[in-house]
């Protein structure tokens, strides 16, 4: 049994070595091809040739937009969970703060009636989510242990309940006529319209690329080293002179800011925001997606977030023995996760260090037996 | 005095682990702290490095009160601890671990110089520079922890059981290295189970029992003290 496990676990190392061993230009060319593929993906002229990839039960470009939002969220949560090793169970709460900031400040159904344009509110939404991250993190990140998990869980639930029941946040009725992002085609028609989801997807895709470049640069700097050291051994990190609280707060707040950006994009696309968009389950799914993909690895988080969001939609309209698979999406997802945790606890595309940390812990478990 | 600890107490929840201990370390010394399991040796180290807050008393470093200073700021002042056991970063390579030791420093030239010095002291680490810290043997991890602490170029190096889990020959070697580090100008506070070796090399030493200092003297004095002999040196 153990040998089988070991063989499965070491399978990915070969692929990883081949990628790292490839010449620079090959890697760049592959990367460019992948990016071009994803820009082309929402065009019917392209995806109709992709066989089973388009979703049968839902508009494929709409699905792609949803998937892209999940990918952005996964990249953000990966900073918090993957790099700094902080357990955030309420990440979707920050998404909600971003979306509601946009809704309240732009929608005509809002009480404040500011009716500001979308673009002006986006930085505010990001700033406000970051601020809520700092407010939440300042008292909790000083403490060790599971306080953060509990507090973030409570935070997301608080936001949801406020959304459902407060008159200011409009509950189920929600906010409508939230303005779209600006931009026009040459013929005067708006670029970001109601029917075509492609421009929104392209916008999110572009932002994902920018965010990933930013995050990559961070992780290769002193900041990244500090995060990794905190994740691996917080006491030791402090003994090396890393101001651990400051860096945990940074990770937590920048993760929150990315969720706020995602929320603002979501609101700008949907045109309508109400309390049903922010169920607690979403936080759990994002977290599971990051772990599934390989937390601590940017590519892993992207693949995890994308795959999970896509698979859930892909189940729509598929019938098996008379039941729609979509009904059982979470059961299937749960099973896949359990299998993953047995065979590859470090995720699909793990971080090399993470893999070593897991081995280290497995060794401790064996010693402890 | 480089380090002065005055009447320090420390609590773990309601358990009192240190009952008003006082000790001093002068510049250039090796001071050993010996005691049985659970006596509070590691706890004393944690109090000095600031990983655990103290309940009362005062810790002074170079004459300044650092009792309330954050741990990472104490490192910047020149106080660095190699923690007990496996305090290394398991996912980082040996070189990355050593690099983390120099986290507070920005003088590239000095860092490079200290790196080659550490690799000279521990040739084993040089051989395994790319290996993940978590996959090193226990003894190698111990060396890495000491080497990493040296990379901060501390004025005071706190070593918590550097000989733990080492083979007899390596124990000899690590104590020789400690002596060498000291002769190169680093002051050392050394916690050890291995009382014989520690006392033989220490200028002065303290004996800790259930959170209290019960005896102190020069290394040689304690080495020949009948009570210490019986309790810690395994001779009747
Ligand atoms: N985190 C903790 N919470 C509660 N009690 C603790 C904690 N750490 C240590 N103690 C207790 O404090 C006392 C002193 O522990 P300490 O680790 O300082 O001993 P030590 O002298 O280093 O022992 P050893 O030689 O075994 O390393 C022990 O009774 C221990 O059980
Ligand atoms: Mg100890």
UniProtKB/TrEMBL annotation, chain A:
<feature type="transmembrane region" description="Helical">
    <location>
        <begin position="91"/>
        <end position="109"/>
    </location>
</feature>
<feature type="transmembrane region" description="Helical">
    <location>
        <begin position="115"/>
        <end position="135"/>
    </location>
</feature>
<keyword id="KW-0812">Transmembrane</keyword>
<dbReference type="InterPro" id="IPR043428">
    <property type="entry name" value="LivM-like"/>
</dbReference>
<feature type="transmembrane region" description="Helical">
    <location>
        <begin position="249"/>
        <end position="268"/>
    </location>
</feature>
<dbReference type="GO" id="GO:0015658">
    <property type="term" value="F:branched-chain amino acid transmembrane transporter activity"/>
</dbReference>
<keyword id="KW-1003">Cell membrane</keyword>
<dbReference type="InterPro" id="IPR001851">
    <property type="entry name" value="ABC_transp_permease"/>
</dbReference>
<feature type="transmembrane region" description="Helical">
    <location>
        <begin position="280"/>
        <end position="313"/>
    </location>
</feature>
<dbReference type="Pfam" id="PF02653">
    <property type="entry name" value="BPD_transp_2"/>
</dbReference>
<feature type="transmembrane region" description="Helical">
    <location>
        <begin position="200"/>
        <end position="219"/>
    </location>
</feature>
<feature type="transmembrane region" description="Helical">
    <location>
        <begin position="62"/>
        <end position="84"/>
    </location>
</feature>
<protein>
    <submittedName>
        <fullName>Branched-chain amino acid ABC transporter permease</fullName>
    </submittedName>
</protein>
<feature type="transmembrane region" description="Helical">
    <location>
        <begin position="147"/>
        <end position="165"/>
    </location>
</feature>
<keyword id="KW-0472">Membrane</keyword>
<keyword id="KW-1133">Transmembrane helix</keyword>
<feature type="transmembrane region" description="Helical">
    <location>
        <begin position="25"/>
        <end position="42"/>
    </location>
</feature>
<feature type="transmembrane region" description="Helical">
    <location>
        <begin position="325"/>
        <end position="343"/>
    </location>
</feature>
<dbReference type="GO" id="GO:0005886">
    <property type="term" value="C:plasma membrane"/>
</dbReference>
From TrEMBL, chain B:
<feature type="domain" description="ABC transporter">
    <location>
        <begin position="3"/>
        <end position="235"/>
    </location>
</feature>
<keyword id="KW-0547">Nucleotide-binding</keyword>
<dbReference type="InterPro" id="IPR027417">
    <property type="entry name" value="P-loop_NTPase"/>
</dbReference>
<comment type="similarity">
    <text>Belongs to the ABC transporter superfamily.</text>
</comment>
<dbReference type="InterPro" id="IPR003593">
    <property type="entry name" value="AAA+_ATPase"/>
</dbReference>
<dbReference type="GO" id="GO:0005524">
    <property type="term" value="F:ATP binding"/>
</dbReference>
<keyword id="KW-0813">Transport</keyword>
<dbReference type="InterPro" id="IPR030660">
    <property type="entry name" value="ABC_branched_ATPase_LivF/BraG"/>
</dbReference>
<dbReference type="InterPro" id="IPR003439">
    <property type="entry name" value="ABC_transporter-like_ATP-bd"/>
</dbReference>
<keyword id="KW-0067">ATP-binding</keyword>
<keyword id="KW-0029">Amino-acid transport</keyword>
<dbReference type="Pfam" id="PF00005">
    <property type="entry name" value="ABC_tran"/>
</dbReference>
<dbReference type="GO" id="GO:0015658">
    <property type="term" value="F:branched-chain amino acid transmembrane transporter activity"/>
</dbReference>
<dbReference type="InterPro" id="IPR017871">
    <property type="entry name" value="ABC_transporter-like_CS"/>
</dbReference>
<protein>
    <submittedName>
        <fullName>ABC transporter ATP-binding protein</fullName>
    </submittedName>
</protein>
<dbReference type="GO" id="GO:0016887">
    <property type="term" value="F:ATP hydrolysis activity"/>
</dbReference>
<dbReference type="GO" id="GO:0015807">
    <property type="term" value="P:L-amino acid transport"/>
</dbReference>
<dbReference type="InterPro" id="IPR052156">
    <property type="entry name" value="BCAA_Transport_ATP-bd_LivF"/>
</dbReference>
